[in-house]
């Protein structure tokens, strides 16, 4: 079961996600940026599910902070902000899926979570294959 950090201050939204998707994914929850920062410092996740704007800060800035530290975990961002603004704030980061608010139905959220996690896995597989091919070329060159 994939492990997801859910950062959402709205209890109703958080409960809706947990009630509808809690049997399919293991969610760890945070209601503030500070809580999420503490959890991220001590745990690893298959995906991050962050609200962009929270009363105590920005889920976008928190994601950027951890991307700069090397965290590559795929992320889903819920927002009312224009897409261009979100992408500008997160430029240079990888594996991001936007979900516009108000949140769509649960089936769409489920597909976006699955796609985001699989997208990251595909990128890892492709990089691994690329690295193995590169190593094979060097081994062949050394053998001749």
User: Quick one: CATH class?
Assistant: Alpha Beta
Structural class per helix/strand content? alpha/beta
Q: Tell me roughly what share of residues is in helical segments.
A: 40-55%
Individual helix count:
5
Which descriptors apply to this entry?
alpha/beta, Rossmann fold, 5-stranded parallel beta sheet, two-stranded antiparallel sheet, globular
Description:
The protein has a single domain (3-143), classed as Rossmann fold. It has five helices and seven strands, in the order βαβαβββαβαβα. It has helices at residues 11-21, 33-42, 59-68, 83-89, 106-143, and strands at 3-7, 26-30, 47-51, 53-54, 57-58, 75-79, 96-100. The strands form two sheets. The protein has a five-stranded parallel beta sheet with strand order 2-1-3-6-7, with helices on both faces. It has a two-stranded antiparallel ribbon with strand order 4-5. The longest helix has 38 residues, at 106-143. The N and C termini lie far apart (47 Å). The mean pLDDT is 83.
Secondary structure topology:
Blueprint lengths: L2 E5 L3 H11 L4 E5 L2 H10 L4 E5 L1 E2 L2 E2 H10 L6 E5 L3 H7 L6 E5 L5 H38 L1
Parallel strand pairs: 1-2, 1-3, 3-6, 6-7
Antiparallel strand pairs: 4-5
What's the gist of this structure?
By secondary structure, this protein is an alpha/beta fold. It is 53% helix and 20% strand.
């Amino acid at each position: 079961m994939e492990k997801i950090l859910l950062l959402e201050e709205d209890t109703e939204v958080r409960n809706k996600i947990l009630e509808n998707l809690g049997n399919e994914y293991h969610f760890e929850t945070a209601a503030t940026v500070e809580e999420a920062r503490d959890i991220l410092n001590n745990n690893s996740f298959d995906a991050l599910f962050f609200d962009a704007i929270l009363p105590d800060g920005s889920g976008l800035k928190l994601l950027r902070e951890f991307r700069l530290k090397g965290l590559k975990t795929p992320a889903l961002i819920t927002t009312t902000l224009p897409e261009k603004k979100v992408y500008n704030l997160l430029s240079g980061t990888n594996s991001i899926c936007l979900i516009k608010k108000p949140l769509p139905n649960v089936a769409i959220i489920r597909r976006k979570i699955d796609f985001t996690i699989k997208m990251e896995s595909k990128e890892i597989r492709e990089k691994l294959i690329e690295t193995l091919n590169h190593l094979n070329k060097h081994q062949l060159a050394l053998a001749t």
